[in-house]
Every structure is written in C-alpha cells, then in structure tokens.
C-alpha cells in the first residue's frame, strides 16, 4: 500500500486518524481552522530527559505560534486538509510551508514521545536489525544525521515498501510529507521525526545537541513508531 492509498484509507488525514488527539481538523468556514492539539502526557512527564519548561514553551508558545500564522496564511483559502495542502506546496508558498509544516511536524512529534520506557519490537526491530545491524547502530546513524542538520530542522526515519527504512533530514519546518517539494519521498511513510531546532533543547542542554539527541531515546514511543510501520504495510 503506498502512502497516498494509506492516507486515503485512513480518512481525512492519515496521521490524525492514527493519532486521535491530534487536531488537524478544520472547517473552511472557520477563520481559525487549525487548533493546538493536547499533549498525551503532562509537561513534566518526560523529565529528566526533556524538562517541563521546554515542553511547556515548545507546545504552548512555539507550536501555537505556527498554528496562529498558519490560520492567517489560509484565511482566504478553502482548505481541504493539512496533509494535502503540504503535499502540493510550491517554492512560493513560504508561509504555509513554514507554519503548516510547523503544525504538522509538532503534532506528530508529541505523539512520538512517551514517558513509558520502551524499545523497538516485531517487524520494526527486524527491519532495523536487517538494515543497520542492531538498534544501537541505528541510533548512531540517526544521531549522526540529526547532528548534521545545519541550523534548524528535523531528522526523520521513513519507510518505503521496497527500499525499507531510510534516515533523512529536512531544513526548517520542511518534512517528507511535502512531496511536491520532496518528490523522492512520494511513496514513503514517516515513522519517526525528531525536532532539532534549538527551541527543542536549549533550556536544558544549551548548545549540546548531542546530549539532547542521546537523552531523547529514553522517551521514544517505539510502540507508536511500530504502529505507523504496521499501518503503512
Ligand atoms: Fe519545535
């Protein structure tokens, strides 16, 4: 099942259907169609790995700001759904690219974190072992890619039905779901995305991105990542 079929099967929006607390829902008649999703845990739930203040500011200020600016950017448009909007963006659509991407990426990111310690299992573990050797080597490769993001951006793990897992990065608030801008990911499903903007870690880790990227594995929601793979297949 390719990405578009998968999303279609899930309804209005694949990620939203998988993640019921994420609100991408919108009405063309509303002036502010996008709203901030509630976190599935408390702001302090990821302590000590991600601190309460970072989570609170990241969610209630940064994510909210993307939503506010996205609502302004789509005020004159009839918006079908966010994922379709992102998939058809061109180089000229700067405001929606930055703020729609910001809303999409953060809504997904919150779901990929969990206060419950866990590890990859099942098909996801098998794929990781087949392609990277073991989970530690996968984490090493992912961290290397994330450290290589110059300035602000995201590191991703995507999956394709024939080529399997792939680690990639995007600048700013771009994501592999922007398939007109990134046609190489047209048939891919996002399994994991990690925010490597400084606002995600600066209060606790300052400039030490490597420490943030080491700690974040302690709060990774592998169950959710595995479920996204299962749904993609
Ligand atoms: Fe962020």
Give a brief rundown of this model.
With 233 residues, this protein is mainly α. The chain has a single domain (1-21, 50-233), classed as minor pseudopilin epsh fold (3-Layer(bab) Sandwich). It has helices at 3-10, 14-18, 52-73, 82-87, 94-111, 122-132, 135-147, 202-205, 209-215, 222-232, and strands spanning 153-160, 164-171, 189-195.
List keywords for this structure.
three-stranded antiparallel beta sheet; 233 residues; 45% helix; minor pseudopilin epsh fold; binds fe (ii) ion; mainly alpha
Bound molecules: fe (ii) ion
Q: Mean of residue pLDDT?
A: 89
Note the run of SSEs as H and E.
HHHHHHHEEEHHH
Helix content: 40-55%
Distance between the termini: 6 Å
Highest CATH level, the class: Alpha Beta
Mind summarizing the main beta sheet?
A: 3 strands, antiparallel
Query: Reading side by side through the largest sheet, how are the strands ordered?
Result: 2-1-3
Low-confidence stretches: 1-23
List the total number of helices. Answer: 10
Number of strands: 3
Proportion of residues in β-strands: 5-15%
